[in-house]
Design a protein that fits this description.
single chain; alpha+beta; 18-stranded antiparallel beta barrel; three-stranded mixed sheet; 16% helix; globular
Length: 531
């Protein structure tokens, strides 16, 4: 009996040694080479395991002993990292793979390992599509008030590359850049910078280095330096940001632990071209902006709150305050935002925000089209600012009204006094209300049919109390092909639509469609993805 025991023990030791993957010593390999080596190793080990079981069964039969396999169908065995890296690796880096799920679970683990080993993350976004109108090419109008579906004909994109440069147990360093812009949907040949009509544009919005573990007082926070900005908060249905996300050269710290919440802080440079009062020439002005955000503070189990503040100050050493008779005076400006974010148990959400701003930040509130809170107007700064204030009350979200009905919504009420308006000049008073709803019938996880209805009205009064009204409405019937039921948080999405757009009042911009018509009907298709 003792002889049989030692004989079986030697057999098991032989089989066990055969199951250990060979260590491969080589120069660094490509990802494709690593995958090929790993797949071959998995197949070889499967064959050896099958043969080992067969031999054990045969030996047990010879010795008239029942066979009880010590290697079950669900046993996990180690995939050595040296197979992936082309050289020896630490045992702690081993990945465990389920032998009976090589084509699913194992490959997912292999993919995750390779991504982490490479230290390269890519993210992106783009939208693109086709549309045609009842009178010539389709035209967008008041997207920031009437909503996006069937009302945008540009091809916007973002592409982010995040490359890890260094990592140990406590420190990491990453280089990150973000390329974004617009690609023309109009011309078959539309090279970037081709001519003045071309709407193909390109820029590096982010270009910075982010570190973790270098700040003793905030070891889990991200300390960054370069061209970057804190993440903006967007009203997705209206395509503008409640709190701006401009990326200027600067430095900041993200995700500092503060009690039960977190804090972000950033100091950025944001220069503009300052118009003279006749708008015939401009010169560069330098500004610095400080932004602080307190976020993710729990109110209830499903509700959190946050507060953000932004302060912009011109650098008068560059002459932005000189020649007051020729150029506009550049003034300090501030913006404060308070927000509540609530998540429903059935998967929907609703956010409520209150904002107040002065001077040029308040000016941005008065735009009926793109009301992103910015210090300037596009790349320019101009206007006679008189410390006027503007306010905004905002709510947006999506709700599942039943298992088959979902509705997204956005509502914005804005008002201000003694502000500068690009449309009606200094000392303007304005009120604005915009509302967009998007209900849809959920056929299944992959299909929805619904409509988007948008309406807005804005009234400006200039210093002479003259009244100017801008208003319009839009209805869009659509069907979407999706990958999940959420309207605002799931992509990719392909849309087929028909839209009727109507100008009710145009006393601020005098806008009309082709042939000086006040309305337009369009049909089209659009794809929107992010990853």
């Amino acid at each position: 009996m003792k002889t049989k025991y030692f004989k079986n023990k030697r057999v098991f030791l032989f089989i066990f040694s055969a199951l250990i993957p060979h260590i491969i010593y080589a120069s660094p390999l490509t990802l494709e080479q690593r995958m090929e080596i790993l797949e071959k190793e998995l197949i070889r080990n499967q064959k050896e395991l099958t043969e080992a079981r067969r031999q054990i069964t045969a030996l047990q039969k010879i010795n008239n002993q029942p066979y009880t396999s010590s290697v079950s169908n669900k046993e996990q065995w180690n995939i050595k990292p040296e197979i992936l890296s082309g050289g020896p690796a630490k045992q702690s880096g081993a990945e465990r793979i389920d032998n009976d799920q090589i084509n699913d679970s194992a490959l997912k683990q292999i993919s995750s390992y390779l991504k982490d080993d490479a230290g390269l993350i890519t993210q992106g976004y783009f939208r693109s599509g086709w549309g045609t109108g009842n009178r010539g090419a389709p035209r967008s109008w008041a997207i920031g008030s009437l909503g996006r579906f069937g009302n945008e004909y540009s091809g916007w994109f973002d592409f982010i590359v995040n490359k890890r440069l260094y990592r140990d147990d406590t420190h990491s360093v990453n280089a990150i850049f973000k390329l974004d812009g617009n690609t023309s949907q109009q011309y078959a040949n539309s090279w970037f910078g081709d001519d003045t009509r071309n709407d193909s544009k390109l820029q590096f919005q982010d270009f910075y280095v982010s570190t973790r573990g270098y700040l003793p007082f905030a070891p889990g926070a991200d300390f960054w330096v370069g061209r970057h900005g804190l993440k903006g908060y967007e009203i997705q249905m209206l395509d503008w940001k409640v709190h701006s996300a401009n990326a200027g050269a600067g430095l900041g710290i993200d995700n500092i632990s503060v009690g039960k919440g977190r804090m972000d802080i950033a100091l950025m440079r944001e220069d503009y071209d300052l118009w003279n009062k006749t708008r015939t020439s401009s010169k560069q002005i330098n500004t610095n902006q400080l932004e602080i955000r307190l976020k993710q503070f729990p109110v209830t189990q499903q509700t959190e709150m946050g507060v953000s503040a932004r302060f912009a100050q011109p650098n008068h050493a560059n002459g932005s305050g000189a020649n007051a008779d020729e150029f506009y005076t550049v003034k300090n400006a501030w913006l404060v935002t308070a927000m509540l974010k609530h998540r429903f148990s059935n998967g929907g959400f609703n956010d409520v925000a209150l904002q107040v701003a002065d001077n040029s930040f308040a000016t941005s509130f008065s735009s009926y089209d793109s009301a992103t809170a910015l210090f300037g107007v596009g790349k320019y700064y101009y206007g006679e600012h008189s410390d006027g204030k503007a306010y905004r009350l905002i709510t947006q979200g999506e709700n599942y009204l039943s298992d088959r009905i979902i509705m997204a919504n956005a509502l914005v009420y804005s008002w201000g006094k003694d502000i500068y308006s690009p449309d009606t000049g200094p000392h303007t008073r304005f009120t604005s209300l915009r509302a967009v709803v998007r209900p849809a019938w959920i056929w299944d996880k992959y299909n929805q049919t619904g409509f988007e209805a948008g309406w807005f009205s804005q009234v400006n009064k200039d210093r002479a109390k003259n009244r100017f009204t801008e208003s319009g409405l839009k209805t869009t019937l659509f069907h979407t092909f999706k990958i999940d039921t959420s309207m605002l948080t799931s992509r990719p999405e392909l849309r087929l639509y028909g839209t009727w757009l109507k100008v009710l009042d145009n006393e601020l911009d005098n806008f009309t469609f082709d042939d000086r018509k006040q309305d337009q009907f369009t049909v089209g298709a659009q794809a929107e993805v992010w990853w």
